Amino acid sequence: MIRDNLVSCQERCAAAARRSGRDPGQVALVAVTKGVGLDRVEEAVAAGVTHVGENRIQETLLKYERLNRYARERGAALRWHLVGHLQTNKVSDAVRLFDVIHSVDSARLAEAIEKRAGQMGKVQEIFLEVNVSGEASKYGWGVDEVAKALPGIASLPHVRATGLMTVAPQADDAEQARPFFRRLRELRDALSGPRTSDLGLRELSMGMTDDFEVAVEEGATFVRLGRALFGERP
Predict the structure, then answer these.
(1) Is the pTM of this model over 0.90?
(2) pLDDT of amino acid 197
(3) Where would a tag sit more exposed on the chain, N or C end, judged by fewer CB atoms within 10 A?
(4) Domains in the chain, start-ordered, CATH in brackets?
């Protein structure tokens, strides 16, 4: 079932990319494994998943070594993405475990990542989380705050901000998410203009199970899929 789901999601991503005149190869699928057992995640890796997303440090610690070993035995390498909220007291583990942290939502958190990455001799790739909808329940910078924060983050030698991330409001119709995804793309494009091109923003992490095709049409380079791959969680 997981293999079939993966193929279906890949085909839907590719079709959405083509509808917007994009190369399907520009879109990566992150398999979000929150609450998913190891055997089922291994099934996804065997089917071809190479981007693994986790929400929580503790759950990642239970899966990390075994899944990396499983992938290596099959000649593959996993790329780990932290897609959930990160508290500063979890930064040490986050920098050690994850290739990309999608949810950097404050200068304070970026500075904590810089300190730990420097100690490890690592340059940590991050995305800046943007609260495009302005919902009080969501983390992230406001749309008007990102430009002010970027120069300080760009000055950190062990942090590399390569993109923006957002979570659209829940809605019955995926089309209702489109304005939020479009706004994030417009913000990325504005921040990547001639005067700010050295900041290196190119990625857009947006779109989940219920709205990822719209997100791809609006420019997503990473979509974060859980239920679409693994089905409903118990």
Answers:
(1) yes
(2) 44
(3) C
(4) 2-230 (3.20.20.10)
